[in-house]
Structure prediction request, 1024 residues.
Amino acid sequence: MKTTGKVTGIVSNLVTVQVDGPVAENELCYITLGGVPLLAEVIKINGDKASVQVFESTRGLKNGDTVEFEGRMLEVTLGPGLLSSVYDGLQNNLTTMESVFLKRGEYTDPLDHDKMWEFTPIASEGDTVVAGDWLGEVKEGWLPHKIMVPFSFKGEFKVKKVVPAGSYNIDMIVATLTDEAGESRYVTMTQKWPVKVAVKAYREKPRPQKIMETGVRCIDTFNPIAEGGTGFIPGPFGCGKTVLQHAIAKQGEADVIVMAACGERANEVVEIFTEFPELIDPHTGRRLMERTTIICNTSNMPVAAREASVYTAMTICEYYRAMGLKCLLLADSTSRWAQALREMSNRMEELPGADAFPVDLSAIISNFYSRAGMVVLNNGQTGAVTFIGTVSPAGGNLKEPVTESTKKAARCFYGLEQNRADQKRYPAVNPIESYSKYLEYPEIVSWLDENVQHGWVDNVLKAKNTLRRGREAYEQINILGDDGVPIGYHVSFWKSELIDFAFLQQDAFDSVDALCPIERQKYMLDLTLELCDIEYQFEDFEKCRDFFKELINDLRQMNYTEFHSEAFEAYANKTRKLAREYGE
Amino acid sequence: MANKAYQRIYTKLDAITKATVSLKAKGVSNDELAVVGGRLAQVVKTKGDLVTLQVFSGTEGIPTDAEITFIGQPPTLKVSDQLSGRFFNAYGRPIDGGPEVEGEEREIGGPSVNPYKRRQPSELIPTGIAGIDLNNTIVSGQKIPFFADPDQPYNQVMADVALRADVDKIILGGMGLSNDDYLFFRNAFEEAGALDRIICFVNTTEDPPVERLLVPDMALTAAEYFAVDKNEKVLVLLTDMTLYADALSIVSNRMDQIPSKDSMPGSLYSDLAKIYEKAVQLPTDGSITIIAVTTLNDGDITHAIPDNTGYITEGQLFLRADSDSGKVIIDPFRSLSRLKQRVQNIKTREDHSQVMNAGVRLFADAQNAKTKLENGFDLSDYDHRCLEYAKEYATRLLSIDVNISITEMLDTAWELFGKYFSKAETGIKQSLIDKYWKGR
Prediction:
């Protein structure tokens, strides 16, 4: 029998419920408000009082209203049809809702139950299988969507029957398994999984082996993110977080992209689902939307569902990873999720940690980041979840709890800088402070040696060092004046500007420059370093400046021109010719 | 909000703070309104039988035996075409001496628009001010605040923008507006002959601060009526959102909530987002555009109010006095319109974005030259040219008293580039240089 209860207290979306039976932490319940069921989640239990966070507005709720507990945690429905969907944080399908305004208590089905899928069996009768093993597949767009032994099945099973190839909907039984006790278990194309529990249906989780290309030079070359890696982008507002994230979403080398718009602007989500159906995936030539799932809990949607939205997104990624696919999860912004936690902690009158955030914030964040990673599946194939989150530090100050906690958990740091944004040097990723731990991984270094260029990481470090020396020279010039320093300081400074303008800066709105494949990045870095390696002689600093400005201008024109086109080669030759005039 | 035939009257308050009262009552619903000693209040918390009410006009003089009746519904506004041309207080009652508005009664602060039912904003709103149109183009359905110190003429600029914008309705939500400013808006609208498309909800400094909390929701409920039901283009002006946030902090403080940064409530982000996210472009051509004002303390944008605002809104327009030109300008570095790419080079000339970027980059070089000058270093020829350029750029383009078309703005910028710089120094794409370069 279900546990029931009655509302005894309300503060905003925190409701206290007097219960008449057992309840579990994180258990779901429905509160009935004038015939409308409001979904809520238990977040604290004290005696027979349960504190629940309601995923909807509690306007009009009264003490004494009835509550019914569900005996399950918040789950997502997994199955073919997830891709190209637009969901809210609780996986309600936003595209099938009728009215302009979101109606309280309106819950829609995440998947289409009528659609028929062409099923092809993989497993055969008599096979021994465990959770996550592939039984068959359907084509979802162009992706092979594996139908797996549900993650919740514990122990070993024998395949009793797999249906023959043909058309089936997601509710039809496609396989029958026998468990160790000889009982039959039935498998359809859909399964459910609690969002807050990591899917562990894989053999092992090795260290990342290769980089994930994004087409963004300051990431791929300077601080690459590994396939199955983690990274985060903190930055004050107006520094281009969203533009950078959308660029990664459009160009990222992944089979599946899940974008969690967590407490952010609705218009940004609109941009994604308006543009992505039109845009082409540069890696497969298919429409971007076909590989994308959007989870959106925009900033005006119920706060409690923000937390759910990032977990829902992660679980969907883990599901596709178990099919041997490469997934990229982008969450914008994890700070909003942390703020949602803070609001609840505050209403529950818990003792606060730094900046009034809950004390376990750091643990929650690192636990979430740990769900990313590359895995080797039971059948030896690999899959990956790469996770990039954005952080919106209050006042742009990186010494705040969310940034600090995330720094401990993520392996790549792309710090956006107000100063660079003010100068319109986009992407405003600070080239010196930002880092990628993956450049220190021997596996990644040797992968880059083989797949990009031998000694690639050394070249990258050399470029970084040129930037650092340039900054030092710039500070000296600022203190001592243009005439107060040797010409060499000006040359150092301008060499760093050359790398900055010609390589790091990238126009996300230019049709050519926006996407720079690694092959082209290699060419540009080699050329830039070749120009920087030259020892230049100038009569005075003004000559030096004019020379570099011209060089920079030519290199920038190259970035706007088709790779290896006639105009491109002409600019390249021009830069080399120009360099010979002043260099040895 | 008429009284019901049968209503239980409570007469015992258990606790009173400056902004809230608590009493034992039964059958009370969350967010519903009540009348406490003749003043309007709203339920903000229930714990067992104990109900806490936020009294909008403050609790001064309320005795523990005050009469309390519950109205049974949250705050509402009657919406109809009769709203046009009218002035209301924070409760939606007329303050212009006219009759009460007849119409459908709607709860204020209602649900959000399904993101999937939105359309991508793509319609340019020209203002004639180059600091906006050229560098930070505004689009219908956008939400954008002015960031300004209290001594900047933000209300004047906002009135200019509103009256030049091609919209069907202008709805002003005034919070903590000084009486002078209130009269300024009234006069400006009247002189422009725009009264029939104006609706005002005003809380002045003479009114109690907590009342302000109702103003944005009132204004936006009216806006949603015209945008959703009537498919009109609505521009909502909210001034000053800093005073709104101050009122939030008063209430949360009285309710013993733990403050986060700058003694603001931990929910500030969500509270502000609920307002700003009402900005929307609907598929039916109706739209709500929000232009707000957030006053700053000495230009400090790291304070919790502007900081949270910046993360919510689609950019900001930063007003400051420019000492070189002696004008109030829209700061090209700190200002941003996130939706400008939606219209630049699409609804405007193809050179727009490149001209904008070059103009700002050269202005930045002038700032560096200025720093050098202040530190006593010799300036190069380029530095001198930058400084000259900056002065003219500020006067002819950035200043808020500019009123020209976008094409004129672009032509002016090309004229300045040609006058002070070589082609390479502008860093503009060659194809555009070939087509638009003026001068040498």
In short: Chain A is about 30% helix and 25% strand. Chain A touches chain B through 77 residues (CB under 8 Å). The mean pLDDT of chain A is 93. The longest helix of chain A spans residues 456-480.
